[in-house]
Amino acid sequence: MSQKVAVLGTGKIGEALLSGMIRGGWSPDDLLVTARRPDRAAELRARHGVAAVTNAEAAKAADTLILTVKPQDMAALLDELVPHVPAGRLVISGAAGIPTSFFETRLPEGTPVVRVMTNTPALVDEAMSVISAGTHAAEEHLVHAEEIFNGVGKTLRVPESQQDAATALSGSGPAYFYYLVEAMTDAGILLGLPRDKAHDLIVQAAIGAAVMLRDSGEHPVKLRENVTSPAGTTISAIRELENHGVRAALIAALEAARDRSRALAGGQG
Description:
- By secondary structure, this protein is α/β, with parallel strands linked by helices.
- 53% of the residues lie in helices and 13% in strands.
- It has twelve helices and eight strands.
- 32% of the residues are buried.
């Protein structure tokens, strides 16, 4: 890789992305990082062999800027960058809920902006990163974003109008899974299992089910039916889930997450 890439505001996700790029063949000499605290910058420099610079220096030197600060800090960061960002610099935003228009109206005219919603499994190279083009982003910019984010998992292109739905489903998705595992672990304890054994049983069941969903090509209904024998244990459990409205609750929860993403995009706190 010959282009210089800067990760601005390098927290956990930013560092995961950085390490994924290095594993994918990027030279540390072509990577820059910024961090709010000097000790954090020194840590990144020592751990990955990359240069730690200021935000202004990154804007001047890098061909691609990846902005990974929190959404509430994005406006202040852009104010700092604007005087130093040349026309044509690719800007990739990883901030939830902020549309590409937010960047396009603040950066130099014609700046290509790509919006990416990734998730925390980036920390174990199993992320799903959802990519959308801004007004001035071309195919080459999308391909470049994919090259970067493929280092920590998979990528999927969607129109920006679908980003709020993707945030609700995928960006927040791992939290729903952890919530379900927590509830199932409590159920295992109630049924008489030690916590550690209940946890191991549930996690391995989840991993196995996920791999089957990914690799079999079967519809989830078909896979569920394969487990559900007449008058058996599974159908008894499914009946209780339906009686308690679990399916409806999940749909309502995802709608609430989507609506919150839209509210953040509209500038509501």
